[in-house]
Structure formats: C-alpha cells, structure tokens
Amino acid sequence: MNMNKITPSSDADVLKRAKRREQKKRDIRRFFRVMFSRKIVVVGAAGTLFFVLVAIFAPLIATHDPNYIQNGKNLLDPSAQFLFGTDMYGRDLFSRIVYGTRVSLLTGVLSTLLATLIGTFLGMLAAYLGGVVDMVLMRICEMMRAIPQLVISMTLIAAFGGSMMSMVIILCFGGIWNSLRMMRASALSVMSNDYVLAAKLSGEPMLKILYKHILPNSVSPIIVSASQSVGFTILMESGLSFLGVGIKVPTASWGSIINEARVYLITNPLYALIPCACLAVLIISLNLLGDGIRDALDPTLRGES
Amino acid sequence: MSNLVETKNLVTTFPYDGKKRIRAVDGVSLNLKQGEIVGLVGESGSGKSVTVMSILQLILPPGKISGEVNIEGIKGNILDYGMFSDEVRSTRGGKIGMIFQEPMTSLNPILTVGYQIQENIMTHLGLKESEAKQKAIEMMKRVGIANAEQRFEQYPMQFSGGMRQRIMIAMVLAAKPDVLIADEATTALDVTTQAQILELIRDLAKKENVTVVIVTHNLGLIARYADRIYVMYSGHIVESGEKFEMFERPAHPYTRGLLNAVPRLDDDKTRRLVPIEGLPPNPANMPPYCKFFDRCLYREDRCKERMCELEPISENHFVRCCLSVEELDKKRDQIEGQFKSAPVKTISGEVCLEVRDLKMHFPVYRGIMKKHVGDVHAVDGVSFKVYTGETLGIVGESGCGKSTLAKCIMRATKPTAGEIIYKGTDMALLKDRALKPFRSKITMIFQDPFSSLDPRQTAGSIVGEPLKINKITKTREEYNDRVDELFRLVGLDPEYRSRLPREFSGGQRQRLGIARALASSPDVIICDEPVSALDVSIQAQIINLLEELQAKLQITYLFIAHDLSVVKHISDRIIVMYLGTVVEESPAELLYSNPQHPYTKALLSAVPISDPKVDAQRERIKLIGEIPSVMARSAGCPFCERCQYASERCRTEKPKLKDCGNGQLVACFLYD
Amino acid sequence: MTRYLLNRLGQTILIMILVSFLTFFLVSIMPRDPVYALYGSTIDQEQYEIGYKELNLDKPIIQRYFIWANKALHGDFGISYKYSTPVTKVISDKIGVTLYLSIFSMIISMPIGILLGIITAVKRGKWQDTVLTLLANITASIPSFVIAVVLMWVFVIKLKLLPTSGFTLPWVDFGKSMKQGVLPLVCLSLVGIAGTCRQTRSSMLEAIRQDYVRTARSKGLKEGFIIYKHVMRNGLVPIITLIGGSLGNLIAGSAFIENVFGIPGMGNLLVNSVNNVDIPVMQASVMLTALVVSVAYLVTDFLYVAVDPRISLR
Predict the structure, then answer these.
(1) Contact C116, C190 (CB under 8 A)
(2) Domain that holds residue B633
(3) Residue A56's domain spans which residues?
(4) With an 8 Å Cβ cutoff, is B88 touching chain C?
(5) Given this model, what pLDDT does residue B428 score?
C-alpha cells in the first residue's frame, strides 16, 4: 500500500470541494439521463411543464374573468372571442379551464406534499418507537385501507365543507396512510443495516440517527411514491368535484365543469370533452413523469428485469 | 478417453453502458472427461459461474454467448442450436445437471420437492408419473433423506439448507446425467454440512461414473475433492492441470499468489499471509495484455507486449504466462525471500474483558394472546477472559450464538443474565446513558462492507463519526488531522475522504470500517466475521492489517468467524461454541494439534487444508445429522444427539468446562 | 394455519370497531342538528325536547356511541333525514345494484387483466408489451368518469347504439338490463383491467427473475411449461391480494359510473346523503362499504392460504 501520500491540506481542501461539486453535477446529469432514457417520459415531462406554465401564467393566458357572467351569451360555440365557447351561465370556458389548471395542480401538489411530510414523520415514528405507537398507527392504516378514499373524503367534505383549503386537507388526510406505510417499511429496512447499528454503538442518540442516517436513505422511495401519487390526488379532487361534492362553485374546477357540461353532451359536446381531455392529458403526463423519476431514483422498481 | 464436454474459445459478453460489451468469459477452452471431478476455481468476477452457465446456455439476453461447445452425442456446436431448442433442452438436466448456490431460493417454494424431482425424471427419462414418483423417492433415500415417502409431499421451506441441497442433488442425479455441475453449491452452508454434501456428491458420482464440476472460490475444497483443476482470472483460464501437480508446482503467478494468500489450519504461528495487492482489472476496461499484469509480482516489461496464450508446460499442465516456468521459479526465491513474518505482539497478563455466565434468551410468543411458549437459548451461560493485546477467536457454525454473544458484549442488546466486566465495571445491565463512556472503548467491525457504511455519508464523515459523538477532538483542525491519520493507519489515501462508499472496493470499504472502529482509540475491537464477505486475496490484506494494527496499538480483538482456518490463523486462543454454549477453549496451536471435544474434532476434520497431500493424511470424522432447531434443546450436553461417544449421562446432565491442562478447557464427560 | 386465520378474523373485527368509532365521531361533529333534521325545522320547543331525548342527545357521547353501535349491530341505523324511512330499507334497495356492478365488472376485468398481464410479461420488451403496457398506463391514468362521459358521447349520442341511462337488474328484464349495463360495466372494467394488467406484469416479472426459474431452465423444461408451472403460479399468488383492494376501488369507482349513467346505487346514495347531510345514511354507507371491503380482504387472505403453502406452514 503506497497510497500514503501527504498533501498540503488547504489546497487539497479547495480541490476536494471542487471535486465534490463536479461529482454532484455528474450525479445530477446522470439522474436526468436515466430519467429521460425512455422517450415517453420526455412526453410526460413536456405535458406536465405545459400545464404548470399554464397554471402559473393563468392571468396572462386567460382571455376573460373566469367567473364573469356574460348575460345571454350562454352555451356559445367556440369562436374567436370565446376560444372554447361559453358555459351554461355564459362564462368563458377557455378562461375557466385555464384557471381550473391552478385548482387541480395546487390541490394535487399541495395535499400530496403535506401527506408525504406527515406520513414520513409518522412512519419514522412508528418504525423507531415500535410497540404501542406502531401498533396503533398500523391499525389506523388498516382501517383507512378498508374505507375507500373517495368515501372517506366525501364524508369529510360533509363535515368540513368544500373550500379549497379544506379540500387540500381532506385529500391529504386520505394520502397520509400510504406514505406512512411506505416510510415505515423503508425505515425498518434501513434500520436493519449495520451502519445504523454502528452509529448506535458509537453512542449516537436515536433522534440523530433518524435524521442523519435513516431519513436520507429513505428519501428515494418517498420521492418516488409522492411523484406517483400527485396524479392520483388530482384524479380524486376532480372526481369529487365531478360528483358535486368537491370544491364549491363558482371556483372553476375541471371536475365540476365536466359535471355541469355533461347535460349538454348532445348540443355542446366540446363543453364536456375539452376539460375531459385536459384532465386525462395532465394525469397521464404526471404519471409518465413519475415513472421516469422512479426509473432514475430506484432502478430496482423498474418494470424491466 | 474422449471428452464428454468440450468448449473452445467460449466468449460470453454483456452490454455495458450503452453500446459497449464486457467480456465476462473471454475465450475459455476446457474439457470434461467421464468420471472425473474437475475443480473450477476463481475469485468473484473471474467468470467461473458464467462459464458453466454458458455451457448450458442459461445466459439470458442481453447476454451473448459465442465460441464452440461440443457435447458428446450431439452433432456439431451446441451453441448453433437455439437456447430453447430440443437439443439444448435434452442436454440441460438430461446430460448436464446443475446445482446452484442459494439453497433457499433455487427450489420453487410453492411446489412440493417430490414434484420438482419427478418433473426432471419425466422430462428426461420419459417415465410415467407413478414410476417417476417411485424413482424420485428412491433418489431421495439415496441422498440420505429419512422418511422419503412422507417428505416427498413436503415443500422446500420445510427443509434446512443442507437438506435442500440434497434435494437438488437427488433432482439432478435422478435424470441420470453424465455431468453434474455444482456452482458454489456449498458456499452458503456450514462447514460440517458442506463436507457432508460434497462427500455425498463425490461418492454418488464415483459410483455412477458421473463427471462432477465443482465451481468454487475455496481452494481447500478443490484440494480435497477435485482430480483436475482449472484456475480462472478475469474471464481467462490462467492455469490448469492435475490436482497434485498444481498444488505442488503451481506455475502461474496468480495461482502462486492465491496459495500464499489463504490461511491454513496447519499454519505456523509466524506465517504472514501474502495478499495479492490491487484489484482485478475493470471488465469495462481490459488491458490488451496479461490481465494479471498490474498485480503480478513476477511481471516484466515484455508481458505488456502481447496477450499470452494457455500453453502446456508438461503433460496435462497448462499455464497462461509470458514467462517460462524456469524464469518464474528463478524469480520465486527472490520474491518469497522478501515475505515478512507476522508482526510480533505483546500480550500482557492483565485481564481486559471478562464475561461470566452470560445468557441471552429470546422469548417465543404464539397466538393472538401472545402466549409465552418458551425461550430460545441463543447464548446459554458463556464465560471467558480476554487479556490485553491478545486475539480471542470465537468459532462455531450457524445458530451457535456467536453473533448474539458479540451483540451482547457490544451491548446492542441487553443480555438476560450474566456479567460483562470491562476494567472492573460490570456493564451487562447498564442503562444507555451509563454505557456511553464504554462505547468508545469497545468498538466493532462488521461483516458486510456494504451495509455497514452509510451510502450517503462521505468516507471522512463515516470515519470521523465516533470522534464527533464522543467529542474526542476539540478543534476542526484536530478532527481533520485525526481523520487523516486514521485513513493512513488503515492504508487509505486521505485524499479519498470526500468520496462516497460506493466509490470504494469491498476491501477498501472494510478498511473504512476498521478506521471507524479505531477512531475512538478503543481497547477492545469485536470483529464480527470481518473477512467472510471478501475474496481470498483481499481477505489476506485485511487480516494482515488487523495483525499490524494490533502489534502497533496493543488492541485486544474478539475475532468471531465461522471459517476455522481464518480464526486459527489470527487468534491466540480460541473458543468453540455449539448451540449457545462453549464446548472447548484452547490455545490456537493446540486446538489444531490436539483437539479435545468430539465436536471440535469433527469441525476441524470438515475444514480442508489447501494442500492435498497434507489434507489426505488427516483423520476424518464424519458428523451425523444436522444442527438441531434452536427450539429443541436437550437437557444434557447440547451435542449429545450427534456425538458418537454419547452416553446416558450426556443426555441428562450438562457437562461443565473443565481444565485439562496446557490451558485447554473442555466441556465433555469423556474427560472426567 | 387455523391460528393464522383466527388471527385475521380478529383483526377484521378490530378494524370494523375502529371504523365504527371513526364514522360515529366524524359524523357527530357535522354541522347539522339531528332533531331539526329528523322532525323538520318547524317544531316547537317542547317537541324539540322530546325529540332530543328520543335521540339520546342528552346522554354523553360515549354512551350514545354504544347505543348506536348496539342498534347498528342489529341492523338498525336509524331513520334517514331525507327519505324519513329506516336507513336499512333505503340502503338495501341500493346496495344490491352496486354490488352487482362491482362484482360483475370484477369477474370481467380480473381474467382479462391477468391474461394481458401475462402476455406483457412473457413478451417483455417486444412490441406487444410496449403497446399493451402503454395502453394500460394510459387507461389507469384517465379518471373513470372521463371515460364514461366520452364513451357515452360516442355510443349513445353519436352512434345512438345504446340507451342513455337507467338500470334494470338482469332477472327483471334481461335484454334491457344488458343494453343499459354495457357501458357502465365497460367503464368500470377498463380501469380494473388496466390495474390488474400492470400488477400482473410486475408480479410475473418478479417471478421470472427468481432463482428457481433458472433451476427449472437447467432441468431442460420447455419455456412454455416453465411459464405455466413455475412462473405463473408464483406470479399470480400476489395478484390474489389485489382482489380485496380492487373491490374497494370498484365500489368507490361505481359512484362515478352510477352518477353518469343515472344508476340508483350506493354511490349515488352516498353523494346525495353528503349533499343533504343525511347523517344516518352516511354512517351506514361508510360502515357497509368498510364491511364489504374488509370481508373481501379476509376472503383474499383465506384464498392466499389455500394457494401458497408458505403461509399455512408458518
């Protein structure tokens, strides 16, 4: 072993830091290369980006106030003035759909984020504390598994109303349990590694082990599952709105637009079909993107052998 | 005698990073003759398993096989037939049967073992189901499975690992193949089971005139069981020949290196292992000349000029080396003259750590109400002393409680009863907070170099972690200096501090693990199977490092392993454990030359020595049965059911450790 | 094995008790006065007091829970606010319809989904796999009500092949029932097929990777036989566990389909009860759904034990 070279430390430090940065850059590049190695993922990413941009720049893109009722101009066909026509009350459909993007993405992303945070925390707690806490949390998970999320969400809406805020919380409540189970399993498997035992045996306090070793090593599966549940949450929100128990009118949600529009399917098919298409494309894009993230972060989960 | 199987220039490639392909097997030519036992030996990544799988075309796309494989009775090159063609299928199982490494996963868990044997018979012998069943039961009896009729209907999970390998043997031999390939078939098994299985294979093969290929990394097994040997390195066969010739006159520098790197049971106390430095070349970046060049002690400039071929040096002895045997032998004296002897260490008479009557019982619960139905006595009254600066080896097969013992001493778990006395304090039952000062004084090296290092921490912060936790270094500078010092101590470049564990090789990772254990300047290090996950050549590096560190820093080791040769090599005294109890304690030299306990004798005899001449002269004790389940313990001596000397007394009364002179202690009524 | 099954049964009962807690307390915080809801908002103070006592609202909430749970155990969930008839009667009309739809579509979607899943797994990497997997991914992503609306537009409005809405049980008028049932069943099944196909594929690929498949190949068995005997059985065992979950999804999913096609089922009832804050109906619906799903999970586990020797041997 003649590797025992001694190098001046200050220069070496700078060099080291540069090397680390280089390494990080390479890692990120590798991440994107694997992620987009399947062309279909690029399509998903493009679709997602499109809707995200629409949501951000909604006020610039929309041609009208989405809630302004143009008297006597209801159920118009698409025209230069009303790109997608008008709805049953005479509101501009194009603008409503543009603003609806905000509702879908905001509720989807926000509630998934919240659910993931809470689920991760509780999952770690269950794995770390074990015993009674673990048992209680697992029973709750099993209970939530027995009640379909749609059913529990409807009941909660009856109790708490359908504002945007309560919608986020209700959808989040439904999503917590999945990520709790995920995190618990992941934490338990990380905890079985010798490096956790090593940290424990060198006297590291458990909270620090959780933060320093267990959390960073569970991040990948959590991100993967979160990225895949955004689409599902959006589906849930639009579904509830479609059933008329979601976000309350007059806020434009794709689900509720479809709900209003299907009565006019004979006369104004585009009224329903356009939001249908938007919803389908958004969720498909999100799921494709999620698959790409999964490929990049967790190659073992990939469908291929 | 004609060749049953013959490969010519067999090449197997796998895609790597897009368009490139790496050659896992790079032009292998070998032949198998009727009735011989051939050993195919090499370290991980040498391509030995891929070679045998390629012969059977078990390599799935995107892997590609090319070259020539000729099999007796089949016209032309079998690789020209498709991998699912009738010819290839009748060869697989019918002509060449294969036993794989993992006994736990190689059998289908949801089909009965009987069916799985029967299936092979029906495919290749064309028997009807009832006849096949008779035949299957007969085979099960022949491989030593009692109650074969009942066990026919059982599922793999109802069998132990050794028993499953017996089922595999029955399955393969039932179809009357010409060749049986055992691909690391006994690697996952305990030594005594390993000996049973290999002896079974050898006896059946000799009786039925079946050719056997033993694929392994273990030189000892080859020395004991093979007739002819192929040595593989990086996809090449580097040397081949008859067993005695090869062990007596190894020609290739790699073969010589391997023999110098493995510890042996009959090692002299002063022998120092000679590791093969460096690593095998990256398969993605193979040199166009001898692949062993970078690690070769005999290399010369002309080696780089061309890729040498496998050439005969005498009848049946082939070597792939640019140097002639005469040149190699001439260089040998000069090279081996530089080998050092083991570092001298000093053992003081002071007791560093004492364990008294330590017990670890795990309760077993059943049912909804979690009724307590019994205890597993993982560690059942273990006592010993360790002196400062010595290495105490703890050896035993799976289930003997050695790892639980280590966890108890580390206080990763709280023992049920007993005392662990370190420098006068009993820490067996201390609370976490009170344990803290001891944490830095007793540290641990783990078995798995992959799971023991956090993949997201840099090497530097892994090694420095104990420094921070125990607040050993005061300033940032002091910390940096200490981490650098630790890196150098274990032979790593401090430059590597900012790398992540995945950028290190297995051996380097184990060095990091050692550096971490050394960080808090401990008095005792518990080494739990520290080299069992490593290749022979790397293993020697780590063993040497541990010995050097001990001599330099006066550390006390508790060295736990299942590999008796390794334990014997590194230890001063050895404890032999069986089912949670110590059956024998003895100075290392005496354990080999004069074992006392019947179990120790059997264990020693199961371990082959990688020198066929020495090995052939040793007394062989066959052990009956397998290690009983942890739940079923006899009231008497734990070994009584498998012991040929067992008397009535052994079944009812538990023998205690008794001194029988020369520092040997034994727990057996034979020595009363 | 019996011990395992008893254990699972006990767990199911525990879960149902937990669900009953949740539904009772959740619903009891809802912003609606049960007395006015039941007797109308025009009653006077005295009548209110009587009603208040009758509904046990003067007792502590824990005691009320036990009274409610006791009655619920005997099939009495109180009186619907909206229909003013016993909840049991309201629900018994609807649950049959939903169960009929869910179970029928499960019978359709499971075999098709499994078959497609096996095809994609066996042909992995080939065009059949690429096409089917992409289709399955897309179908699983599209909300079922979107599919329903689009199918309705195509088949009912454009092609005029099928009636708009309504529902008839097959034993009442078979022809009519089939005609009305085609679209709802197709919508429900499509989602099920996509999900089952994806799960089967990954489970089969997992099984193909196992060492025992390599052992089977080393025995020279035919590839088709290996898939049939060694891969399929191991690959399909995990699919059984999906039955419980997918029944739950189907029941929930049928809410959309019922809504689009105007089918008087549980889903519609639940939506109405939420819109009308019909607390007793809501409680009963949640309890009932949870019961059906839990029983499905239980049956799944029993099946699992029958198929996989590893569990019964534990």
Answers:
(1) no
(2) 351-441+554-671
(3) 46-297
(4) yes
(5) 87
